[in-house]
């Protein structure tokens, strides 16, 4: 039987690469329970304290976690790096360790540096939930993506999912790849040469945009405009023409297929403006599904 410290580590969610298919399904099932009951607020986590530690900007993920935590009855503390001792030179580890020392029961953390989260998780006792680390993983985004697909199709197994865009810098692409393949879906990528991920070579095929849009799920990724200076692409117009989901391309999609996007969205770059809320689009449903998914993940962390 696992001791208390080991059990606490097991309740962390650092990524989906190491999570079993059974654990993933368990989280999806629990999210379905929370969505079905969807109480305004419960006392499930009454007396528990959770710190949301965002060392990188976020809107959807941070508010989705906070909504989930408050629905479960937890006490929530929000931390923003711009207004903290990090600005005085304090390390991320020291900040996390300080919050743990004050009695926080669990932490939700978003970081830019790759690998730092796993290192910190080894040094502290409270469970941590990855809210996005570098281009490594974004597990709760992938879980809500899977949850959205399962709600629409009833089953993940057998689906073909095209992930289109900046694969190399996408933690969403990686977490979805690990989880979808474990649950029996076929994943394929579509990206310009400058946006392909060398570390994922051989794990999923790259296909043309014409083939990508014939999948069951067409998942567009945000074009990371902040990286343009590094030469990832020439212009937004050229990217839209070669890799964007245009209205014309949407008409070539299968009737049953759906459009997904983790947001934020660059309208008329990776996806045409009129498609964002098209009947095929699940983009805002994805955001709604983030709350029950994160309720399941937070509850699991403190169980």
UniProtKB/TrEMBL annotation:
Domain Aspartate/ornithine carbamoyltransferase carbamoyl-P binding: 12-150
An MF annotation (GO) of this entry: amino acid binding
InterPro entries hit by this protein: Asp/Orn_carbamoyltranf_P-bd, Asp/Orn_carbamoylTrfase, Asp/Orn_carbamoylTrfase_sf, Asp_carbamoyltransf, Asp_carbamoyltransf_Asp/Orn-bd
Domain spans labelled Aspartate/ornithine carbamoyltransferase Asp/Orn-binding: 158-298
Transferase in keyword set: yes
GO CC, any one term: cytosol
SUPFAM superfamilies assigned to the protein according to its UniProt record, in alphabetical order: Aspartate/ornithine carbamoyltransferase
Positions contributing to carbamoyl phosphate binding: 60-61, 110, 138, 141, 263-264
Gene Ontology biological process terms in this record: 'de novo' pyrimidine nucleobase biosynthetic process; 'de novo' UMP biosynthetic process; amino acid metabolic process
EC number in record: 2.1.3.2
Pathway annotation: Pyrimidine metabolism; UMP biosynthesis via de novo pathway; (S)-dihydroorotate from bicarbonate: step 2/3
HAMAP family associated with the record: Asp_carb_tr (MF_00001)
Annotated function: Catalyzes the condensation of carbamoyl phosphate and aspartate to form carbamoyl aspartate and inorganic phosphate, the committed step in the de novo pyrimidine nucleotide biosynthesis pathway.
NCBIfam families: asp_carb_tr, PRK00856.1
Protein name as annotated: Aspartate carbamoyltransferase
Organism (species): Paenibacillus swuensis
Phylogenetic classification of the source organism: Bacteria, Bacillati, Bacillota, Bacilli, Bacillales
Gene from which the chain derives: pyrB
